[in-house]
Design goal:
With 752 residues, the protein is an alpha/beta fold. It is built from 31 helices and 13 strands. Strands 10-9-11-12-13 form a five-stranded mixed beta sheet, with helices on both faces. The chain has a four-stranded mixed beta sheet with strand order 3-4-6-8, covered by helices on one side. The chain has a two-stranded antiparallel ribbon with strand order 1-2.
């Protein structure tokens, strides 16, 4: 893939402003996650710097931002305790990074393709809800819970809701609350007022500047208004270069033989990789340009980042959805924004930490709160609900699980629920069962699913046991990419033992060569001489009408075309002669869902009866013994429209086609008695209705012409050996409208 670098100043400006905003938001998040992990505060900032610069340079994601992850806090805290020191833990982080690089080289990122859409959308929505619930206390100055804490159960023995409840019990700060609420008002106004929305200055940056200014102002207003240290960003400040270097910690390489180090590394690598690929997938969904990031390359980038962060004293990094969504919402276009945010983190913590420590947490909380509302959109809930319970239930459970536990546990619960739904659906509906009415009789078609596992065995056994004695069954495996050996053994036994013993005709279609089940069609799916002799005109018409219904519903019969070609190569015994218009919207074989050798088709503009057409009909009906002649007209017929234009006053331009008049002459009798129609003055709707009326009469005229001009066909009708039937096909709906055969026979024999 090509590296996405800014190609014009507009992109550079967007990335620069987004990088500044992400940097400002990332500072308290990095500190809070380090605090929750029982790690040194500065380790969180180091991870943010590495996630921005190192991972940003190596990653091919356009919008993802990496840094310390809230989902890893419990693991980091427990592993630091288990390993006995932070330095030994850093060695485990380095080894975990090497494992991630190996996984990326092995292209293990493909796992992202198997994460259900409902879980990804649930992740995004849950993060939005958590941001709203967690940031409300910070917006009003209740900062007992540190920024970056995303779990429901908090280290201070509180939880998300009790922390929220304390706000309504008066535990908030007047000055911080004023800054937070004004920040929200500014963000809302910025998104709704046109000239502000189109401004190149991002609203979050203005919010931070507002917070800084009001913080200085309120410092002169007394204790109730002054913003104290607990309500501000708190970056560790080094008095000199030597003290700054002391913030850096290095791994204890002497512990490299400790098995616990490798167990910790495996745990970190697995969890960090899973969280990365999930967050990466979710971030790509938020990208307005819908660009796709290569997950395996991302694992390599994250692995390199973790090796570096472990070397200098940081905690593990992953792709993080909160900072990524802030990046996208503030206009980040390429990965340059995440690199800028990392560079700003490095510069600020080393050169100007005092400035960062003047930023009120409440204005940053307002930015995150606004991001939360964008992620947790009510429209997304409605969309998922409309997609049905198999999508909505895993989505909703994922949201609730993440909100009431933590990110990692919630995702695993969501994946488990989605997997259970997939298995349930596979067990319940491992196959599609359709009874097909072929010309030779009913055939039960069993269409196997894409993945046929041992879990499907019971359902397949039940279906095969339900095939009646002497029946026909088709097992269709054309859509199956895998069939379990247990199921294959079952099918072999049914084909070789059970089916012959019960007189069942079993046909096979689409099985791969390695399954040793060759394609074999046992039922009759084309017209034969015996079938032609046995069926009456009424029965043939019923078959054609049923075929039209299948065509309209999309449930056409399964046909083995090569077999039909071979079977009809030496003889044909069609069941009907269909006289239709040549209109491209009326393909006869498709309309009636018939196969090779089933019908004669005579197509001519306007379905008119000329000597050549009549000769063709006589051959099919009298010589080849087809019991039904069906004259099929259709709506919006061009030939009829041309005749109406010529007869009813509108000029008719035949473009020099001297033979078109023969079509017009044949259709024109159908306008007799209707010539009062004025084509020039009629509306389009009136003309369409009139043309369709004439088309219907033209079908009747063609039926009468066949009987009047062909004594042989008339004799067939009188003897009950054939019937001539008219029908109209609606090109708008695909539906056929025809008269009953008995009605036709009575009217036709009565006239003769």
């Amino acid at each position: 893939m090509t590296e996405q670098l800014p190609k014009k100043s507009g992109t550079l400006v967007n990335d620069l402003t987004a990088g500044v905003v992400v940097f400002i938001v990332a500072v308290p998040l990095c500190l809070g996650i380090a605090l929750a992990s029982d790690a040194p505060l500065f380790s969180g900032l180091l991870s943010g710097i590495v996630g921005g610069i190192v991972v940003g340079l190596l990653s091919r994601s356009h919008t993802s931002v990496s840094g310390p992850a809230a989902g890893l806090t419990a693991i980091v805290s427990s592993q630091i305790t288990a390993l006995g020191s932070f330095q030994v833990f850093l060695l485990a982080v380095m080894i975990a990074g090497a494992m991630q690089i190996a996984a990326g080289i092995a292209r293990a990122g493909f796992i992202a393709m198997f994460v259900p859409n409902s879980v990804i959308k649930g992740l995004l929505t849950a993060i939005g809800i958590i941001l709203i619930l967690k940031q409300i206390p910070h917006v009003v100055g209740h900062d007992d819970d540190f920024e970056g804490e995303m779990s429901f159960a908090q280290p201070d023995q509180q939880n998300t809701f009790t922390e929220l409840l304390s706000v309504f019990q008066g535990q908030w700060h007047l000055g911080a609350a004023t800054i937070g609420l004004l920040s929200i008002v500014l963000l809302v106004a910025w998104s709704r007022i046109k000239f502000l929305k189109n401004s190149p200055v991002p609203a979050p940056l203005v919010v931070v500047l507002l917070g800084l200014g009001l913080g200085v102002l309120f410092g002169n207003w007394g204790v109730g208004w002054a913003i104290g240290k607990s309500h501000l960003v708190q970056v560790p400040v080094a008095k000199n270069l030597s003290e700054f270097r002391s913030f850096l910690t290095h791994p204890d390489f002497s512990a490299w033989l400790n098995p616990q180090v490798y167990m910790a590394a495996i745990t970190i690598a697995i969890v960090a990789s899973l969280e990365t690929v999930l967050n990466l997938e979710a971030t790509d969904r938020l990208d307005p340009q819908q660009r796709q990031s290569p997950p395996s390359r991302e694992l390599i980038a994250q692995g390199a980042g973790n090796m570096v962060t472990g070397l200098i004293g940081g905690i593990p990094v992953t792709s993080v959805i909160v900072r990524s969504s802030v990046n996208i919402n503030t206009g980040g276009k390429t990965k340059l924004s995440t690199i800028i945010h990392g560079c700003l983190l490095l510069a600020s913590v080393s050169l100007a930490p005092q400035v960062l420590n003047q930023i009120p947490l409440s204005c940053l909380a307002a930015i995150l709160l606004a991001t939360g509302f964008k992620l947790a959109s009510p429209a997304l809930f409605k969309q998922m609900y409309k997609e049905g319970k198999y999508q909505f239930t895993p989505f909703l459970i994922t949201v609730l699980a993440i909100v009431f536990t933590d990110l990692l546990v919630g995702i695993l619960i969501g994946l488990g629920v989605s997997l259970s739904f997939i298995l349930y659906s596979n067990v319940k509906r491992p196959l599609h069962r359709v009874v097909e009415n072929h010309v030779g009789g009913e055939v039960l078609r069993i269409e196997l699913s894409n993945q046929v596992s041992f879990l499907n065995r019971a359902a397949i056994v039940q279906t095969l046991d339900g095939v009646p004695e002497g029946g026909s069954v088709l097992i269709d495996a054309r859509n199956s990419s895998y069939i379990d050996p247990d199921v294959l053994g079952l099918l072999h036994e049914f084909k070789n033992k059970s089916a012959p013993a019960r007189g069942i005709s079993i046909s096979l279609l689409g099985f791969r060569n390695r399954y040793q089940l060759e394609d074999e069609i046992q039922y009759i799916d084309y017209s034969t001489h015996e079938l032609q002799e046995r069926l009456t005109a009424d029965q043939v018409l019923e078959m054609l009408v049923a075929g039209n219904e299948r065509f309209r519903s999309g449930n056409t019969l399964t046909r083995h075309t090569i077999r039909q070609i071979n079977a009809t190569a030496t003889a044909q015994h069609p069941l009907a002669v269909v006289v239709s218009c040549m209109d491209s919207r009326a393909p006869v074989e498709m309309i009636f869902d018939v196969g090779v050798g089933d019908v004669f088709v005579v197509r001519v503009a306007g379905n008119v009866i000329s000597p050549e057409v009549l000769a063709s009909i006589e051959y099919g009906c009298v010589i080849a013994r087809a019991p039904l002649v069906l004259v099929m007209g259709h709506t919006n017929c061009g030939a009829v429209t041309a005749t109406v234009d010529a007869i009813c006053g509108r000029s008719f331009n035949d473009a020099g086609c001297s033979h078109l008049k023969y079509i017009v002459d044949e259709v024109s009798p159908s306008i007799d008695g209707l010539s009062h129609f004025n084509a020039e003055q009629a509306t389009d709707e009136d003309k369409i209705a009139f043309v369709n009326q004439v088309s219907h009469r033209n079908v009747q005229h063609s039926v009468e012409a066949i009987l009047q001009r062909s004594p042989a066909i008339s004799e067939q009708v009188r003897n009950g050996q054939a019937a001539v039937v008219g029908a109209m096909y609606d090109v708008n709906t695909g539906q056929l409208h025809c008269q009953d055969v008995d009605q036709h026979v009575k009217s036709q024999t009565g006239e003769m």
